[in-house]
Write a structure and sequence with these properties.
CATH superfamily of the largest domain: NAD(P)-binding Rossmann-like Domain
Largest sheet: 6 strands, parallel
CATH class of the largest domain: Alpha Beta
Order of helices and strands: EHEHEHEHHHEHEHEEEEHEH
Strand order of the largest sheet: 1-11-8-7-5-6
Distance between the termini: 45 Å
Number of domains: 2
Number of helices: 10
Number of strands: 11
Radius of gyration: 19 Å
């Protein structure tokens, strides 16, 4: 019977550990502070921002919030980021994506100081990861590694196939798995004979944004399957990129949707915030 990898439970454990660390920092008169900037009123973004505020409150991290109107100019947003970069009492800066189309997303990501880039999206953060230096790691891939470790799923020497090559999940995920000494293959929309490649995977990580795309024929007997997708099906129920019911009897372990990878993203953001007390360049 497959092990269900419980991201909700694991994220709660991480938040409890962080809460203890934050209490110890407060005893030394050190207060961790995260600043979240949201531009516009995207409903999904509002939910994410609210969840981040709740996590900060639980752990004891001070939370600053800037909720800017949809018509905020790029210049105004850059000025705000510059001001926060210079504030010693702000340790992490996060601009909630997506942002309105009239603002250059890359320019905004690059404006955040690498030492406050708790999302791990800055080119310097990505560069540090790629050459094995200490720095902030994109939260979802970092959360996946934590899930595997905490469920005692060894990555060393394993064949890992990642479906999806996004800058936020696929690419950093590949580098993290290499760091854990896995043998890594990345598949994408131009990959030929996808099922032949994915069936080699001891660990299959799926982040493609297509509901229930990965079926029984894509999965090796006994594989570990990590589903990063989040969709609503025809009955308005949440589902992932993997057809859970179709693969459950074939896998050795799997993340459910919801309650798998999702909760880990915010837990690792909180982890990065606490880590930000020590500059990433050290």
């Amino acid at each position: 019977m497959a092990t269900i990898i419980d991201g909700k439970k694991t994220s709660s454990e991480i938040k409890d550990e962080l809460k203890e660390q934050v209490e110890q920092l407060k005893e030394k008169n050190i207060e961790v502070c995260l600043c979240v900037i949201q531009v516009g009123s995207d409903p999904a973004s509002a939910i994410y921002v609210n969840n981040k505020k709740k996590a900060c409150e639980y752990i004891g991290i001070k939370s600053l919030s800037y909720e800017l109107p949809e018509d905020t100019t790029q210049e105004h947003l850059l000025e705000l980021i510059d001001k926060l970069n210079k504030q010693d009492d702000v340790h992490g800066i996060l601009v909630q994506l997506p942002i309105p189309k009239h603002i250059d997303e890359d320019r905004i990501i690059q404006a955040i100081s690498p030492n406050k880039d708790v999302d791990g999206f800055h080119p310097q953060s990505v560069g540090r990861l790629s050459i094995g230096q200490k720095g902030f790691v994109s939260c979802t891939p970092a959360g996946i590694v934590q899930l595997l470790k905490r469920y005692n799923i060894s990555m060393e020497g394993k064949e890992c196939v990642i479906v999806g090559r996004s800058n936020i999940v696929g690419k950093p995920m590949a580098m993290l798995m290499l760091r854990e000494n896995a043998t890594v293959t990345i598949c994408h929309s131009r990959t030929k004979n996808l099922a032949e490649v994915t069936k080699r995977a001891d660990i299959l990580i799926v982040a493609i944004g297509k509901a229930k795309f990965i079926k029984n024929e894509h999965v090796k007997e006994g594989a570990v399957v990590i589903d990063v997708g989040m969709h609503r099906n025809e009955n308005n129920k949440l589902c992932g990129d993997v057809d859970y019911d179709d693969v459950i009897d074939k896998v050795s372990a799997i993340t459910p949707v919801p309650g798998g990878v999702g909760p880990m993203t915010i837990a690792m953001l909180m982890y990065n915030c606490v880590e930000s007390m020590v500059p990433a360049t050290k």
